[in-house]
Design brief:
The chain has two domains: 45 residues; 105 residues, Nuclear Transport Factor 2, Chain: A (Roll). Helix content is 45%, strand content 18%. It has five helices and six strands; from the N terminus they run αααββααββββ. Strands 2-1-6-5-4-3 form a six-stranded mixed β-sheet. Helix 2 runs antiparallel to helix 3 and helix 2 packs antiparallel against helix 5.
């Protein structure tokens, strides 16, 4: 019993052509399927982001001196320049809520807990107006309806100068 697919009547060039067309169709249809799955994954990702609660931004501080302060603070934190950071902090800088810790020991605590990357990440967020004249980051912390309990940073104008007041979690 022999299988005769009817290809014997075609020349080798015709067979190559039919094979190329067939492979092209397979690849094209496979590509469309891949695009659809990527598109579906993209839609799901966007839907998940849309579901995420977004903080209602109260007000971003656009004062030049505030932006300059934040820029210097971000640069000092990225370089782990503790001397510069110390001049930008309040003497009673808060660095732990429970048990409450403030003042001396903050840099040692950040080193022990490996908090430098977290601090850098929070400081890269947008600062918005919080309670009691604080500028806070991330913006989710300023939205009380979100009950945000992650890391956050607070900056406040004290005696005419901006000061880094706290970086805490919880």
């Amino acid at each position: 019993m022999s299988l005769n697919w009817g290809l014997s009547q075609y020349t080798p060039n015709a067979v190559k052509f039919i094979t190329c067309v067939g492979l092209t169709l397979v690849l094209a249809l496979g590509g469309i399927t891949a695009c659809k799955s990527t598109s579906k994954a993209e839609k799901e990702r966007k839907a998940a982001l849309a579901k995420k609660a977004k903080a209602e931004l109260r007000e971003e501080n656009t004062d030049v001196d505030f932006q300059a302060f934040i820029g210097r603070l971000r640069k000092a934190v990225a370089a782990k320049d503790v001397n510069t950071i110390a001049t930008m902090m309040t003497p009673n800088f808060g660095y732990k809520l429970n048990p409450p810790l403030e003042g001396d020991g903050v840099f040692k605590y950040w080193d022990q807990e490996n908090l430098w990357p977290e601090l850098e990440g929070i400081l890269s967020e947008t600062f918005v107006k919080g309670d009691n004249d604080f500028m806070v980051a991330p913006p989710q912390f300023a939205d009380k309806s979100l009950n945000y309990d992650g890391y956050r940073a607070g900056i406040r104008r004290i005696n005419g100068s901006w000061k880094f007041v706290y970086f805490v979690n919880g």
